[in-house]
Design brief:
alpha/beta, 5 strands, elongated
């Protein structure tokens, strides 16, 4: 089952995020987190994103925050998260909460003290974990093995080269990292123990891996393709 908006404050480390409005739509699935830096974010939205508004790079007045909700409604975002604190957006306007209820868009408040990098990492990991559970079944390993055996090594290498985020040589270089990710569902601490290294080493390797796929349009889809190619290659 996909990660839902209502589950965001229940994720480990995100307990300080509060659902303030749009509770009726709290069951919206979250496709991916997106941090909005520009006044308008619709050109970069595909639908289903949980959009974060920080106010760091651009002043966000109550009117502009309301525009974010209207824009989010038009482009089908999953929900809107507004970061509040003394530095930029002082508090969440009550009018915004009412508007979120009217538009049926989940509206969250997040304190600035909660680092964005940790928030997006936790959410992205939860999304990928939920998708992994959905796709996992008793015949999963048998199926990937059967596909690999049916197409043959040469065809499989060519398929991965043409359609995968990384080629087969690059995949083999990160095979241990992806095996650890699959075994421990993206938990960096457990991955570090399995790989006999520091947690920061795992984080740095994952960051470098993500950077190599940064040109891809959809990070979640690219990582799914990467995992599938890895499973086919190791079958």
């Amino acid at each position: 089952m996909a990660l839902r908006c209502v589950e965001i404050p229940q994720l480990p480390g995100l307990e300080s995020i509060e659902l303030r409005g749009g509770v009726a739509a709290a069951g919206n699935p979250v496709r991916w987190p997106y941090v909005a830096e520009n006044r308008s974010f619709s050109p970069w939205i595909k639908g289903g994103e949980l959009v974060f508004v920080t106010g760091i790079s651009r002043h966000r007045s109550p009117q502009n925050l309301a525009e974010c909700l209207y824009e989010g409604k038009d482009c089908g975002i999953s929900g809107l998260v507004v970061l509040t604190g003394d530095a930029y957006i002082g508090q969440l306007p009550t009018t915004l909460v009412r508007l979120a209820d009217e538009l049926s868009i989940p509206l969250f408040e997040q304190p600035y003290s909660l680092p964005m990098i940790e928030v997006t990492e936790v959410i992205a990991r939860a999304i990928l974990r939920s998708e992994q559970k959905d796709s996992r079944g008793p015949a999963a390993n048998t199926m990937t093995r059967a596909v690999a055996e049916t197409v043959g090594t040469d065809t499989l290498d060519e398929f991965i080269r043409r359609y995968g985020p990384l080629d087969t040589d690059a995949l083999r270089d990160v095979a241990d990292l992806l095996n650890a990710w699959l075994a421990h569902q993206g938990n960096y601490h457990a991955m570090a123990e399995a790989l006999h290294c520091h947690r920061n080493t795992v984080r740095n390797r994952m960051n470098r891996l993500n950077e190599r796929m940064s040109a891809q349009d959809d990070p979640a889809e690219s990582f799914e393709s990467l995992l599938l190619a890895h499973l086919l290659l190791r079958s």
